[in-house]
Design brief:
The chain is 45% helix and 8% strand. By secondary structure, the chain is α/β, with parallel strands linked by helices. Strands 3-2-1-4-6-5 form a 6-stranded mixed β-sheet, with helices on both faces. α1 (2-40) packs across α7, α1 (2-40) crosses α10 (302-311) and α6 packs across α8 (228-242). It starts with a helix and ends in a 13-residue tail after the last helix. The model is unreliable at 1-11 and 298-324 (pLDDT under 50).
Length: 324
């Protein structure tokens, strides 16, 4: 009888310890991947005022959470200001984000603009609302960024969003175009960064469950089940089920572009190609079948990865000095 009681007592403790280990590994991975993106694309500099766009979804909550962890250990000083756009959706719980942000002690700004009524009025029933909603939201956030003297605008798009955007543009837009990790805004006045560029959505889901973020559902795009983006997302997830690792390979491909082997003459000077007479190990073997070799997955050197994992962020390219 006592043996049974002891066994029942030990198993839950072992399971709890395993969960704790896995959660710790997840946190280290998230911090490492966000830190890597910040370093690779020089996203944050000394003295930056970073506007963290907080929608109330798992991605933006996760982005703010990880950036706060990195801020405490970063080799540069920078500010984080959480900004939420209250679009006056019916039933939107406008008390949740202020309460949460006050608890964290994070500076924040809530901008209230009734874009919901505009979108519902202009867009016919059953049509996609994303385009108009995005344009309205973008213009408002740029104005708020100016008012708050923001130097970087951080958006919560993750690795899966970037892949989906690539396939959306290819399938429906006829372009090989993705979602950049860093860019100058269309009005030319702001730098936009995506710190979650290396992060998988499944990890953000797990992190949101662990941290128990007060998720607020979107009643606009979140209720449109037949969006092209959702179809693309389902396609990628199905591929991953059939061929594990394919998502990682596709994401790596976005970082290994060979313009000379595509067909855009504006990106490569095909017209003036000349014989050089010099062998090129990387040259094309026009008469041979292409041999596909698995890519070396991108990442930081192992030493720096370990340093990022333990300290969350390390000094490198653009993140080298911290003043007290």
């Amino acid at each position: 009888m006592s043996a049974v009681w002891i066994e029942n007592e030990v198993v839950p403790l072992a399971k709890e310890a395993k969960i704790e280990r896995e959660t710790h590994k997840l946190e280290k991975r998230l911090c490492r991947q966000v830190g890597q993106a910040i370093i690779d694309f020089n996203m944050i500099d000394e003295g930056d005022r970073v506007m963290v766009c907080l929608s109330g979804g798992k991605d933006s909550f996760g982005m703010l959470d990880i950036l706060l962890k990195l801020q405490a250990r970063a080799p540069v000083n920078f500010e984080l200001i959480a900004v939420n756009l209250d679009q006056k959706q019916p039933g939107f719980p406008d008390h949740i984000l202020p309460q949460y942000l006050k608890t964290l002690g994070v500076p924040f700004h809530i901008e209230t603009q009734d874009t919901y009524s505009i979108v519902k009025k202009v867009v016919p029933e059953g049509k996609t609302m994303c385009s108009l909603c995005s344009r309205l939201r973008r213009g408002i956030l740029y104005r708020v960024a100016d008012e708050l003297k923001i130097t970087k605008i951080a958006l919560g798009h993750h690795r899966d969003d970037m892949l989906q955007t690539f396939f959306l543009n290819m399938f429906f837009g006829g372009k090989l175009k993705g979602m950049p990790p860093k860019l100058v805004s269309d009005d030319g006045g702001h730098i936009v960064i995506r710190p979650l560029a290396n992060v998988a959505e499944k990890d953000l889901i797990r992190w949101a469950e662990h941290r128990q973020f007060p998720i607020i559902p979107c009643n606009l795009c979140g209720s449109q089940e037949h969006l092209q983006r959702k179809q693309i997302g389902n396609m990628i997830r199905e591929w991953e089920k059939q061929y594990p690792g394919r998502t990682e390979t596709m994401f790596t491909a976005l970082q290994n572009v060979v313009p000379s082997h595509l067909m855009d003459h504006r990106k490569h000077d095909f017209k003036n190609i000349q014989v050089t007479g010099v062998p090129d190990a990387d040259g094309d073997r026009a008469f041979d079948a292409e041999e596909i070799t698995p890519p070396a997955l991108t990442g930081l050197p192992s030493l720096l990865i370990n340093q990022l994992g333990s300290e969350h962020i390390a000094g490198a390219s653009g993140l080298t000095h911290k003043t007290s």
